[in-house]
Design a protein that fits this description.
By secondary structure, the protein is of the alpha+beta class. About 15% of the residues lie in helices and about 30% in strands. It has three helices and seven strands, in the order H-E-E-H-H-E-E-E-E-E. The strands form two sheets. Strands 6-5-4-3-7 form a five-stranded antiparallel β-sheet, with no helix packed on it. Strands 1-2 form a two-stranded antiparallel sheet. The protein is elongated, with a radius of gyration of 23 Å.
Length: about 180
Protein backbone atom coordinates (compact mmCIF):
# COMPACT_ATOMS: atom_id res chain seq x y z
CA UNK A 1 0.00 0.00 0.00
CA UNK A 2 1.30 3.41 -0.91
CA UNK A 3 0.39 6.25 1.41
CA UNK A 4 0.69 9.94 0.64
CA UNK A 5 2.71 11.69 3.30
CA UNK A 6 0.78 13.89 5.70
CA UNK A 7 0.72 14.56 9.43
CA UNK A 8 -1.53 12.10 11.18
CA UNK A 9 -2.36 10.10 8.04
CA UNK A 10 -0.52 6.99 9.25
CA UNK A 11 -2.50 7.02 12.51
CA UNK A 12 -5.76 7.21 10.54
CA UNK A 13 -4.64 4.32 8.39
CA UNK A 14 -3.92 2.27 11.53
CA UNK A 15 -7.20 3.37 13.16
CA UNK A 16 -9.31 2.19 10.24
CA UNK A 17 -7.17 -0.88 9.51
CA UNK A 18 -6.39 0.10 5.95
CA UNK A 19 -2.87 -1.37 5.80
CA UNK A 20 -4.17 -4.93 5.28
CA UNK A 21 -5.49 -4.01 1.84
CA UNK A 22 -2.42 -3.87 -0.38
CA UNK A 23 -4.51 -3.44 -3.55
CA UNK A 24 -5.90 -0.11 -2.38
CA UNK A 25 -4.14 3.22 -2.63
CA UNK A 26 -4.88 6.02 -0.19
CA UNK A 27 -4.31 9.43 -1.72
CA UNK A 28 -4.24 12.78 -0.02
CA UNK A 29 -5.21 15.57 -2.38
CA UNK A 30 -5.37 19.24 -1.56
CA UNK A 31 -9.03 19.08 -0.51
CA UNK A 32 -10.11 15.51 -0.11
CA UNK A 33 -9.17 11.94 0.78
CA UNK A 34 -10.25 9.16 -1.46
CA UNK A 35 -9.55 5.45 -1.74
CA UNK A 36 -9.24 3.81 -5.12
CA UNK A 37 -9.28 0.10 -5.96
CA UNK A 38 -6.86 -0.88 -8.69
CA UNK A 39 -8.54 -3.21 -11.18
CA UNK A 40 -7.26 -6.78 -11.14
CA UNK A 41 -5.44 -8.13 -14.20
CA UNK A 42 -7.91 -8.55 -17.04
CA UNK A 43 -10.64 -6.66 -15.16
CA UNK A 44 -11.91 -3.97 -17.50
CA UNK A 45 -13.80 -1.39 -15.40
CA UNK A 46 -14.07 1.29 -18.03
CA UNK A 47 -17.65 2.36 -18.55
CA UNK A 48 -18.86 0.61 -15.40
CA UNK A 49 -19.77 3.90 -13.72
CA UNK A 50 -17.65 3.15 -10.64
CA UNK A 51 -15.36 6.10 -10.08
CA UNK A 52 -12.91 6.82 -7.27
CA UNK A 53 -15.59 8.47 -5.11
CA UNK A 54 -18.02 5.53 -5.38
CA UNK A 55 -15.22 3.03 -4.75
CA UNK A 56 -14.15 5.01 -1.69
CA UNK A 57 -17.67 5.14 -0.26
CA UNK A 58 -18.18 1.40 -0.77
CA UNK A 59 -14.80 0.60 0.79
CA UNK A 60 -15.40 2.77 3.85
CA UNK A 61 -19.01 1.61 4.30
CA UNK A 62 -17.81 -2.01 4.41
CA UNK A 63 -15.60 -1.10 7.38
CA UNK A 64 -18.24 0.81 9.35
CA UNK A 65 -16.93 4.27 8.47
CA UNK A 66 -19.80 6.56 7.51
CA UNK A 67 -18.08 8.90 5.06
CA UNK A 68 -14.75 10.10 3.82
CA UNK A 69 -15.28 13.15 6.02
CA UNK A 70 -14.87 10.87 9.07
CA UNK A 71 -11.27 10.21 8.06
CA UNK A 72 -10.67 13.95 7.75
CA UNK A 73 -12.27 14.55 11.14
CA UNK A 74 -10.13 11.90 12.85
CA UNK A 75 -6.93 13.35 11.40
CA UNK A 76 -7.77 16.97 12.22
CA UNK A 77 -9.10 16.16 15.71
CA UNK A 78 -5.82 14.42 16.54
CA UNK A 79 -3.89 17.61 15.78
CA UNK A 80 -6.19 20.09 17.54
CA UNK A 81 -5.36 21.39 20.99
CA UNK A 82 -7.41 19.89 23.79
CA UNK A 83 -7.86 23.12 25.77
CA UNK A 84 -8.36 26.47 24.08
CA UNK A 85 -9.27 29.75 25.73
CA UNK A 86 -12.55 31.41 24.74
CA UNK A 87 -11.93 34.90 23.41
CA UNK A 88 -13.25 37.07 20.62
CA UNK A 89 -12.83 40.37 18.82
CA UNK A 90 -12.30 43.32 21.14
CA UNK A 91 -10.68 41.25 23.90
CA UNK A 92 -7.24 42.29 25.14
CA UNK A 93 -4.99 39.24 25.16
CA UNK A 94 -1.43 38.16 25.85
CA UNK A 95 -0.21 35.55 23.38
CA UNK A 96 2.78 33.49 24.51
CA UNK A 97 4.47 32.12 21.39
CA UNK A 98 7.62 30.08 20.90
CA UNK A 99 10.31 31.88 18.88
CA UNK A 100 13.46 30.20 17.55
CA UNK A 101 16.59 32.34 17.33
CA UNK A 102 19.55 30.42 16.00
CA UNK A 103 19.57 27.18 17.97
CA UNK A 104 17.82 28.62 21.04
CA UNK A 105 14.10 28.75 21.67
CA UNK A 106 12.32 31.22 23.92
CA UNK A 107 8.81 32.42 24.73
CA UNK A 108 7.82 35.81 23.31
CA UNK A 109 4.73 37.62 24.63
CA UNK A 110 2.64 39.69 22.24
CA UNK A 111 -0.02 41.79 23.98
CA UNK A 112 -2.80 43.60 22.14
CA UNK A 113 -6.43 43.67 21.03
CA UNK A 114 -7.96 40.86 18.97
CA UNK A 115 -9.25 42.52 15.80
CA UNK A 116 -10.48 39.38 14.04
CA UNK A 117 -10.98 35.67 14.52
CA UNK A 118 -11.28 33.32 11.57
CA UNK A 119 -12.98 30.02 12.30
CA UNK A 120 -12.10 26.99 10.26
CA UNK A 121 -11.31 23.86 12.23
CA UNK A 122 -7.62 23.10 12.28
CA UNK A 123 -6.69 26.27 10.36
CA UNK A 124 -8.53 28.56 12.80
CA UNK A 125 -6.64 31.81 13.34
CA UNK A 126 -6.84 35.20 15.03
CA UNK A 127 -5.14 38.57 14.55
CA UNK A 128 -3.86 40.73 17.42
CA UNK A 129 -3.07 44.45 17.04
CA UNK A 130 -1.01 46.67 19.28
CA UNK A 131 0.71 50.03 19.08
CA UNK A 132 4.49 49.84 19.49
CA UNK A 133 6.44 53.13 19.51
CA UNK A 134 3.62 54.93 17.70
CA UNK A 135 3.36 52.33 14.95
CA UNK A 136 0.53 49.83 14.64
CA UNK A 137 1.73 46.21 14.63
CA UNK A 138 -0.55 43.31 13.72
CA UNK A 139 0.32 39.66 14.09
CA UNK A 140 -1.73 36.61 13.14
CA UNK A 141 -1.60 33.35 15.09
CA UNK A 142 -3.02 29.89 14.48
CA UNK A 143 -5.17 28.79 17.43
CA UNK A 144 -4.05 25.14 17.23
CA UNK A 145 -0.40 25.82 16.42
CA UNK A 146 2.22 24.11 18.59
CA UNK A 147 4.15 27.41 18.49
CA UNK A 148 1.43 29.17 20.52
CA UNK A 149 2.01 28.18 24.14
CA UNK A 150 -0.99 29.93 25.70
CA UNK A 151 -3.40 32.80 25.28
CA UNK A 152 -4.31 34.88 28.34
CA UNK A 153 -7.39 37.09 28.25
CA UNK A 154 -6.57 40.31 30.11
CA UNK A 155 -9.96 42.02 29.67
CA UNK A 156 -13.11 41.39 27.69
CA UNK A 157 -14.13 44.07 25.20
CA UNK A 158 -17.66 45.15 24.36
CA UNK A 159 -17.90 45.34 20.55
CA UNK A 160 -20.71 44.87 18.06
CA UNK A 161 -18.66 43.68 15.10
CA UNK A 162 -16.80 40.50 14.23
CA UNK A 163 -13.93 42.31 12.49
CA UNK A 164 -12.47 45.48 13.99
CA UNK A 165 -10.54 46.77 10.98
CA UNK A 166 -11.75 50.30 11.68
CA UNK A 167 -9.14 50.41 14.48
CA UNK A 168 -6.43 50.47 11.80
CA UNK A 169 -7.49 53.96 10.72
CA UNK A 170 -7.65 55.37 14.26
CA UNK A 171 -4.69 57.20 15.76
CA UNK A 172 -4.01 57.61 19.46
CA UNK A 173 -4.84 55.67 22.59
CA UNK A 174 -8.16 57.44 23.21
CA UNK A 175 -9.43 56.76 19.68
CA UNK A 176 -8.68 53.03 19.83
CA UNK A 177 -10.19 52.50 23.25
CA UNK A 178 -12.77 49.70 23.60
CA UNK A 179 -15.32 49.54 26.40
CA UNK A 180 -14.96 46.69 28.88
CA UNK A 181 -17.70 44.08 29.00
CA UNK A 182 -19.33 43.60 32.38
CA UNK A 183 -19.48 39.92 33.25
Amino acid sequence: MRIARANGLQSAVRTFGLEAFDRRVLYLTAFDFFVWRRPAAGDDRRGSGVGPREAADAFLAARGIATIMDIKRVITDAQKKKQTVEFGPGDSVKVHSRVTEGNKERIQVFEGVVIERKHGGLSESFTVRRIAHGVGVERSFLVHSPRVEKVEVMRRGLVRRAKLFYLQDRIGSKATRIKERKS
